[in-house]
Structure formats: structure tokens, C-alpha cells
Amino acid sequence: MLIPPVANVLLGWIGLPFLISVTGCKLFARWQVNRSLGQSIREEGPQGHHIKQGTPTAGGAIIILAWLLSAFLLASPNFWQPDVWLALLTTLALGTVGLIDDGLKVLQGKNNGISGYVKLGVQAVAGLAIGVWLWQQPFHGGISQIFSGEWLLPLGIGFSFLAAMAITSTSNAVNLTDGLDGLAATTLIMSFVALALILPFSDPLALLCWGAVGAIAGFWPHNKYKALLFMGDTGSLALGGFLAAVCLLRGLEWWIIPFGIVFVAEALSVCLQVANFKLTGQRLFKMSPLHHHFELCGWSEPSIVTVFSAVQALGALAGVWLLWQQTRLPL
Description:
Layout: H1 6-34, H2 60-74, H3 82-108, H4 116-135, E1 142-144, E2 151-154, H5 159-177, H6 183-198, H7 204-223, H8 232-249, H9 256-259, H10 261-280, H11 290-296, H12 301-327
Antiparallel strand pairs: 1-2
């Protein structure tokens, strides 16, 4: 059956990827250490981050591997619907770009990987593919009103460009957030828990969200302060893309904002910093993204992660509560 009991979700869709991830990340980090491989830290970043030079990276590859392997082991044949494949292909495409990017940084010993234009191109194509597919579905094709769910502005094929923007912006926002030990992992877990709670229990994408929670939770012990393994672009780009893909595929475009409030704030801080500097020649923040500003204000990494995680939790809870009020469906 496609509808699993709660125990199956906890032990299977969360427990199995957790076990694979927590074991795989330990072995992957050790393998990199034995070969003197690791992350190059950008010179313009906070000075305190330079001690992280050489930390094993691309842990996102293990997260994705644990997550997908568990899905293929647990899912029934009717699980693999077109929208599921779209979400997974988006994740794999962005994860592949991230893995190449991480690999180039490690091999070159510099914090320069793939061109930003290449990343944007792959993100945009993935979003366009989802948008075109949704445009052909009878229930989609425009921007919906936040609470009623009715169409406010029919977009037709133009919805594809909205989807491309959602995938690109969310993927990059998660990538920007992945700058402190444990920050991206913790906030992503909260986003995926919120999504899984508001989707029907038997929805394949809800089960994949639970699987992502398990895989990221297995990675977290190796990524918490002081990190033994970084997520890398492999994980941040892929998981950010998957988050946006699920929201798009289930008509939850607006809900990316409360479910990923920290990601929005991080990306917005970069945009405001650049705009303000070009207009006035002054920096709005001591450094962007936003978590670096608080670092330079004297906050410790664990304190920033704790506060940002609390904000993400509040945003996710608010989103779940509002959607529950809208649908009047039991959680």
C-alpha cells in the first residue's frame, strides 16, 4: 500500500536514510581526511573561518545518496509518478552541478568552481521544465491567492518563468545560508518537516520530505559546530531546489516564504547589500549574507545558528498553522 502507518514513516522513511547518512558521512569525511582533501575558504570571508580550511566537503552527496537509496528500497511501483520524477530530476541536476563545483574547488585549492552563469542556467532549465509540466495540468497556470487558493492572476505559459525564478532563488538562498556549521542543515530539516505535515500523509512528495529529514539529520552530527564535514554546494543547491520543486508541484508557491524565512532573509540581505553599496557607496551590513553580519557583531556561531533556527521554526509553524486554518484538515 502507498499509505504507510506512522511507524513505517518513522522507521523507514526517516530511520533508514538517517542510518545510511550518519554512517556514510563518517566514512566519507574520513576518506577525504586520509587524502588531504577539503574545502577552500574564501579569503574575503570572516577571518575566524580560515581555521576551517581543509574541512571535508560535499557531504550533500551522501545526504542525496542515502535519501534516494532509501526511497528506491521503500517505495511501491505506483509511487513513481511524473511529479515525483520531476522533483527528483531537479534535485539530481542541481546536485550534480554542486558536486562538480565542490570537486573543482577541492582539486584547484581555490574557492572558485563552476561559473555562476552555468549554475543559473541549470537552475532555470529545471524550473522551466517543472513550470511547463504544471502549465499543462488543469489545476495550475497562474499565481494563486494566498488564502483562498483561487486564481488571482492567470499566467499561462508565463508560469514557467515564475517556476524558474522560484527554483533559482530558493536553491541559491539555501546555498547562501550554508555558511555556518549546522545552519543550513537545521533550517532545512524544519522546512521539510513543515512541508511533510501539511501534505496528505500518503503523498509521495510528503514521504520524500520525510526521507530528506532523515538523511539531513544523519548528516547533522558531522556538521554541527565544529564541523567535521561541510554540506557543500552539492547539498545546498540540490536540497534548495527540491524544496522549491515540492512547493511548486503542490501549489504552495507562496509558502516557500514562511517555510524558508531564514533563506529569504539571507538572500534579501545580499540583494540589499549590493543595491545599497551601488547607490550610496555604503555597506548596509558589516558583511553579507546576514549570518556574517552577526558574526562581525561578536555573536558566536552556535548562538547565530540557535537564533536563526528558532526564527525558521517559528516561520514553519506559522505556515503550517495558517494552512491548517485554511483547509481545516487535521495535521
